[in-house]
Amino acid sequence: MDNLIIRNATKSDVPAILCLIKELAIFECEPDAVAVKEAELLQDGFGESPAFGCFVAAIKNKVVGIALYYPCYSTWKGKSWHLEDLIVTEPYRGKGIGFALFKKFIFFAHNTGVRRIQWVVLDWNTPAINFYEKQGASTLSDWNITQMTEGAMQKFIAEQDAGI
């Protein structure tokens, strides 16, 4: 796509990054799930000890996509990267922007010497699954993602403190 630039995100991109995160939440039928605020993204991505990195896709200085990632560790493979979100705003989908962001992320990850990159995709998001598998990724159907929400953590801690 003409005029497409893939670059590292900057602090000034944070409002656009948050807008894309909210757009993804709507797409994934979770419009009220986004709790993160701009201040948190600024601190967590651009503060003293960044918790994540982010590439942006920009056309004429307008951010139209992101690839947000963070380091993780595999006891089997060692250092790894987790691709948290690959988002392209709806009007720009199907134009190669997602591929350009994905390519940038893979080259970045490879250059850092990791043995694995990983991400999750909703089981009903067939276009995304097909896209990733076309690029050589494997969908692991024998693993389940398990997580604990903030509320569940608080309940667990309260129960432990109460001796339950």
SSE layout and pairings?
Blueprint: E1 4-8, H1 14-27, H2 38-46, E2 53-59, E3 62-74, E4 78-88, H3 97-111, E5 116-118, H4 126-134, H5 150-161
Parallel strand pairs: 4-5
Antiparallel strand pairs: 1-2, 2-3, 3-4
Please, could you describe this protein's structure?
The protein has a single domain (4-119), classed as Aminopeptidase, CATH 3.40.630. The mean pLDDT is 95. It is α+β, with helices and mostly antiparallel strands. Strands 1-2-3-4-5 form a 5-stranded mixed β-sheet. It has helices at residues 14-27, 38-46, 97-111, 126-134, 150-161; strands at 4-8, 53-59, 62-74, 78-88, 116-118. The radius of gyration is 17 Å and the shape is globular.
Short descriptors:
single chain, 164 residues, alpha+beta, Aminopeptidase, five-stranded mixed beta sheet, 5 helices, 24% strand
In short:
The chain has one domain: Aminopeptidase (3-Layer(aba) Sandwich), CATH 3.40.630.30. The protein is 36% helix and 24% strand. The protein has five helices and five strands.
